[in-house]
Amino acid sequence: MRPNPPTISGLTRYGRAMGCALAPALLFAAPAMAQTEHHHHDAGPAAAPDYAPKAQAASPTPFTLGVKVTRSDGMVIDLSALKGRPTIMTMFFASCPDVCPLMTENILQAESQIPADELKDLQVVMVSFDDRDTPAVLDAYRKAHGIMSPRWTIASASPAASRTLGDLLGVRFQKLPNGSYSHTAMVDLVAADGAILARVPGPSLADPEFQAAIRAMLSMSSAANP
């Protein structure tokens, strides 16, 4: 079983050990809120939460799964190429009418409140699980949200690769008869080494504590790499 991110107390202890305190009200693995589903369809039963401490060295990370993605510029990369920077990571689909664009805008809003000298080390990775999301579609999505920064990777993955990544990130998705998707609205904060520090339900992204949580993650990275 792949362990879930640690509980509030575990995150707080880890944050303080790195010289900062994480935002405990926001950073958690929440079995209730983690069921936030899009389009009012259930994407399947949730696994029982596992709050055991993470075995950092042995645990798979988004950067060690061997998942290949196709970026909005058409380049195919392995997610391992993105290891080494603190990361906001989520999954989405470009034609989503509500939750996905809202999550994107909330991430952009949180970023806008963080000083530029702190943001330089942050990257945002959004991976689509929709096989209709070609590079042209993803590029249009990027432009529609005014995303110009090279720190953002907007990409798509094959159905199999999406399932593999979604299993690790706590994102479930299911294609509906009308071609849309039911999916979990979830954003993960991932340390530079790939360890998942926290799982944030989509509705919490508008909370000011989300921006504080990002800054805490960046502070941890700076403390680890002075």
TrEMBL record:
Binding site for Cu cation: C96, C100
Signal peptide residue numbers: 1-34
Gene3D superfamilies: Glutaredoxin (3.40.30.10)
Start and end residues of each Thioredoxin domain: 46-219
SUPFAM superfamilies linked: Thioredoxin-like
Keyword Signal on entry: yes
GO MF term set: metal ion binding
Disulfide bonds: C96-C100
InterPro entries: SCO1/SenC (IPR003782), Thioredoxin-like_sf (IPR036249), Thioredoxin_domain (IPR013766)
UniProt keyword Aminoacyl-tRNA synthetase present: no
Family that this chain belongs to: Belongs to the SCO1/2 family.
Protein name listed in UniProt: SCO family protein
Species in which this protein is naturally found: Sphingobium phenoxybenzoativorans
Lineage, broadest ranks: Bacteria, Pseudomonadati, Pseudomonadota, Alphaproteobacteria, Sphingomonadales
